[in-house]
Every structure is written in structure tokens, then in C-alpha cells.
Amino acid sequence: MKHRGEVREDSDMLIAMETEAEKNYGSVAATNAPVQPPDRNVFSDGSTRVDFVLVWEEPLSLQVEEGSSPAHREWRQVFLQKLRKSGLLQEQKDVLQQKTKICFVLLNAPWSVLCFYAEDISLRVPLQVVPAPLTNWSAQVLSRLSVPNPFLQDVPNAPPDFYTCQFRNNKLQRFLGSDNKDTFFKTTQRHQVLYEILARTPYGSIKRGEVGIDRLLSEGVFTAAYPLHEGGFQPPSPPVPPPVFSSEADPVLALGHLVLLEKLPASGPHQGVLRREDRALLRLAW
Q1: CB-CB contact of 167 with 118 (8 Å)
Q2: What's the total number of domains in the chain?
Q3: Anoctamin dimerisation domain spans which residues (predicted)?
Q4: Average pLDDT per run of 10 along the chain, which is 286 residues long?
Q5: pTM score > 0.85 for this model?
Q6: 160, 270: one domain
Q7: 129 and 57 both lie in a single domain
Q8: For residue 97, with 0-12 CB atoms within 10 Å meaning exposed, 13-18 middle and 19 or more buried, which class applies?
């Protein structure tokens, strides 16, 4: 985010900010970042990752009540308290400006919460790698007819296909990657779980529809609510041949391959980009 009246670089991360008063809007001045900068999307302990962020503004002057009514404060407190009861970890960071205080509440879903809601909303997780690559029947027909396939997409280091099934906590050991709790659920799956919790948590009377973050946003109780992503992928420098590209650089290679002129007739984004579930690449790949 940017300070009103100041220029900030878009690459500045929101969460890596000081809790004391500064001339910013929750961002940090850009520095000469190393090749692999440390993860800034974490709590102050340096390890708990940030899955979702809630934002609201409060006036510094006690005489100014606009945007900070007692009802809004009560709804906000009840909502945050019920989020804590549901198991979410919270950390608040405040940024002081001339007339307002901007409050950021960082949310994290522990492993037990992720497993409970993943089973509740029937998230699909990988069970086994597909032994043989999937083939397209139309590509086979065109190949037998010796006709060029205008929809052929050949991206180096395409990720494997998986057999998936609905997540079950009592069958956790059967799923691929279950030994690593930090990477078992994808970033987008964590966002899905967090949004599900935020959407179903009441803050008042259920009969009056006082439920969920969407209603709170429309009422102006919160200014914004959004998940975080890992940031932009940077290709290695100097360029590395495709066969030895790392897994982190693969999305960049896939995107660069898709925007080539001869790939314009393609019907849509490459399946490798879809499987990686990278939203930024998905929007640019069409």
C-alpha cells in the first residue's frame, strides 16, 4: 500500500513493517534485496505465516466519530473474538498517520484448523502420481493424419498429474506430502479455508443476517480483507537452460512460453500453470 501523498514502489511488502509511527501506509521502503530475500509474509516471530489480513481505520481524535461508531467497534470485537475461538491465530499491527490509525490484523490457520475445515469443505488433495502422461485424443488424431496441431503446448518441466480425492483426516498418511505440514496444503487452499471461516463466522444476530466478512465489509466495519501471495517470481540470472530450471522458476518459464507469438491460437492457459494455481500467472496466460 502507499502513503497518501508519497510515492512507494509496488514491490514493497505490506506485512514487513514497524509497529511504531512511520511515514507509510503499512509498507516498507525498498532496499537492495538479495537474490532470495527472506519471507516477509510472517508474524513477528518470523515463522508463523500470514494467510489473511483484515484492515480497518480509526480516527486519532476522540472527537471524531465518523467511521468508528460504537456498533462497528462492538461488531469488530465480537467477530475477532469468535475467530480466535475457531482456532485462528491473530496478530495486530497499527500504523499511525496524521489523523487516522490504520489497524492490520494478521490471521493464521494452524494445522489442526486446516485439517478440520479441509475435511468440512471437501478439499481435494493429491493421492498418487499418475504413472502415464495424459494424452489428448484430438492430438492423436491429428498426428495420425500428419496435420499440425495448432493447440500443441510444450512447456519444459511440466509438473506431474495426480490422482486426487477429498481430504480425510483419518487417512492423512495416505496423501502425498502429508509428512510436511508446512507445504501439504497449497497457498490457495489455505486462502480457501480462511475465507470459509471468515464467511461463516457470525458477529451478531444470525436472524438479521449479521454473519460473515462480506457483510462487515459492506457495513464499513472493515476497510479491506484479503489474502497474501508470495510475490513475483524472478527468473535466474543469467538465464538457465530449461532442463535445469528450478521449480520456483518454472512458472516464469511457462508464462514466457505462452506469450510467444505462435502460441496465440492456443485455447487457454497451459495446464501446468493451472496446476500450480498461481493466480497472477493465470490472469496473464490467457
Answers
A1: yes
A2: 2
A3: 42-235
A4: 45 42 42 55 89 92 60 94 96 91 95 95 90 74 82 69 90 91 92 95 92 94 89 58 47 51 48 49 45
A5: no
A6: yes
A7: no
A8: middle
